[in-house]
């Protein structure tokens, strides 16, 4: 960095310090702000906390400051909510007031400053986008239309694992094959497209570009530029890479999928609802002038991460927990054999007859909440919460993981115990009917993906457990479940090798 730029930054720092002191004195008398750690001028609490605002850190601060707390992260106000009562306020009672999304500087690039569905501000545009995406993607009609496809994909996973001689001895990185399955499930709905194998050139290209986006987006190191804008010159190189990756991804979606579906030969079935894919619906909405091509591309961008990556992460966590808790795996296998009969393969319809399978999925999403603080909410205008004043454009984080792991509301929450959902928590569902358990959120900005995530998880885990004994690799007694927390997601750190011993049929 040259001397002139450094001088400008120092002058800006001085001016910002002066302004911050004046503003805090003026506003501090008027606003009743939530409690939180001491904020220094300019930097706020960033000097104490750093770039990481994960669910564990927020849970620890909640014990000290209460269930509604304020973290002054540079110029950004971050409000953390850790109780059912206040979560209800944010997500339901004041769902409109807190219904917008807070984007960071990287997700501004990834979403074209909110031209997508997930990170756009609450309002008419969001309602229109939500409707356009929900109809071809997230309804029970879609489940019934594609469930046999999902069952076939799960059967293909079982067949490929059986054919792999090292799967039963040394083990394989199961995630890689499950990744292909999940891509095929989503791409079939979205593009009427599937990939033949992990070596398919287009699959390799899509997977790599999505992987680049995921790594860049989940990285915590760029947060300082989001908190303290005058430090953003230090992120020029990083943000340039983000723009290059975004351009490459959008061009890939356009050239490989969007333009193909626009061709007459690909859209003959557009007048026949049974032949439409989701992209056809999006294109029709574009022809009606409801959305433009950029919106369509950013919707596709959303689905490549929100629908695909989250499902893969959930499957990884579930497999790891089944291996590390063999008594749960044995009990689940016994339920499937008893209810369906030995060798009868689990279907989507069967998943509703298997309460312990449902409990295993729910317990995985409780202990390993994939998006532990949900996606960040934002109030466009000054609001009230828990008797406190919430400054306009605050980033509001609802700590769903804390709600689902609070000893005050859960018996032995640190244990992986699916039985809880058949015993003391038998009435608690994944749809948020009890706000202590909201893995998909609840309210206006809840995740509509629950409609397809739950059956896909059920079919896949059911098929794996009934066909294989899942074990850790040789020399290990358990799978490493160290967390890898990013901007929004909680993933498993290592893509573990898994031994899958076929059961005798």
TrEMBL record:
Residue ranges that the Swiss-Prot or TrEMBL entry lists as coiled coil = none
Question: What protein name does the entry list?
Answer: Trans-cinnamate 4-monooxygenase
**PANTHER family named among the record's database cross-references:** TRANS-CINNAMATE 4-MONOOXYGENASE
Iron among keywords: yes
Which cofactors go with this protein?
heme
Which keywords belong to this entry? Heme, Iron, Membrane, Metal-binding, Monooxygenase, Oxidoreductase, Transmembrane, Transmembrane helix
**Membrane topology summary:** Single-pass membrane protein
Report if keyword Nucleotide-binding is assigned.
no
- Where is this protein found? Membrane
Could you name the domain of life of the organism this protein comes from?
A: Eukaryota
State the family named in the UniProt similarity comment for this chain.
Belongs to the cytochrome P450 family.
Enumerate the InterPro entries for this protein.
Answer: Cyt_P450, Cyt_P450_CS, Cyt_P450_E_grp-I, Cyt_P450_sf
User: Where does this protein chiefly localize?
Assistant: membrane
């Amino acid at each position: 960095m040259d001397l002139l730029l450094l001088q400008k930054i120092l002058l800006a720092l001085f001016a910002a310090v002066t302004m911050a002191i004046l503003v805090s004195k003026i506003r501090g008398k008027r606003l009743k702000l939530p409690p939180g750690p001491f904020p220094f001028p300019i930097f706020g609490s960033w000097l104490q906390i750093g770039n990481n605002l994960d669910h564990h850190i927020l849970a620890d601060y909640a014990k000290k400051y209460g269930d509604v707390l304020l973290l002054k992260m540079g110029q950004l106000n971050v409000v953390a909510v850790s109780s059912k009562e206040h979560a209800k306020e944010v997500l339901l009672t004041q769902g409109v007031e807190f219904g917008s999304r807070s984007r960071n500087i990287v997700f501004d690039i990834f979403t074209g400053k909110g031209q997508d569905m997930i990170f756009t501000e609450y309002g008419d545009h969001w309602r229109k986008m939500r409707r356009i995406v929900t109809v071809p993607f997230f309804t029970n009609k879609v489940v019934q239309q594609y469930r046999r496809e999902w069952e076939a994909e799960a059967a293909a996973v079982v067949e490929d694992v059986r054919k792999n001689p090292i799967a039963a001895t040394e083990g394989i990185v199961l995630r890689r094959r499950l990744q292909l399955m999940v891509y095929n499930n989503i791409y079939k709905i979205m593009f009427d497209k599937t990939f033949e194998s992990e070596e398919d050139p287009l699959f390799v290209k899509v997977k790599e570009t999505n992987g680049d986006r995921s790594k860049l987006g989940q990285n915590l190191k760029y947060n300082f530029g989001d908190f303290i804008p005058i430090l953003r010159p230090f992120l020029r190189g990083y943000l340039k890479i983000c723009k290059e990756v975004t351009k490459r991804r959008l061009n890939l979606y356009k050239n490989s999928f969007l333009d193909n579906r626009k061709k007459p030969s690909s859209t003959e079935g557009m007048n026949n609802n049974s032949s439409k894919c989701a992209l056809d619906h999006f294109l029709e909405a574009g022809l009606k002038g409801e959305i433009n091509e950029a919106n369509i591309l950013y919707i596709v961008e959303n689905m490549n991460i929100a629908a695909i990556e989250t499902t893969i992460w959930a499957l990884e966590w579930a497999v790891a927990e089944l291996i590390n808790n063999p008594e749960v795996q044995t009990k689940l296998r016994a339920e499937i054999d008893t209810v369906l009969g030995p060798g009868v393969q689990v279907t989507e319809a069967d998943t509703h007859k298997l309460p312990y399978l449902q409990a295993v999925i729910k317990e995985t999403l409780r202990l390993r909440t994939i998006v532990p603080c949900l996606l960040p909410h934002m109030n466009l205008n000054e609001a009230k919460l828990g008797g406190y004043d919430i400054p306009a454009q605050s980033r509001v984080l609802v700590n769903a993981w804390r709600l689902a792991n609070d000893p005050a509301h859960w018996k032995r929450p640190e244990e992986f115990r699916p039985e809880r959902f058949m015993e003391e928590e038998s009435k608690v569902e994944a749809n948020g009917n009890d706000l202590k358990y909201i893995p998909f959120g609840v309210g206006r900005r809840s995740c509509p993906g629950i409609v397809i995530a739950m059956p896909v998880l059920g079919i896949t885990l059911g098929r794996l457990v009934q066909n294989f004994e899942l074990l850790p690799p040789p020399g290990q007694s358990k799978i490493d479940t160290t967390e890898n927390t990013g901007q929004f997601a909680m993933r498993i750190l290592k893509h573990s090798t898994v031994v899958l011993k076929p059961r005798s049929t």
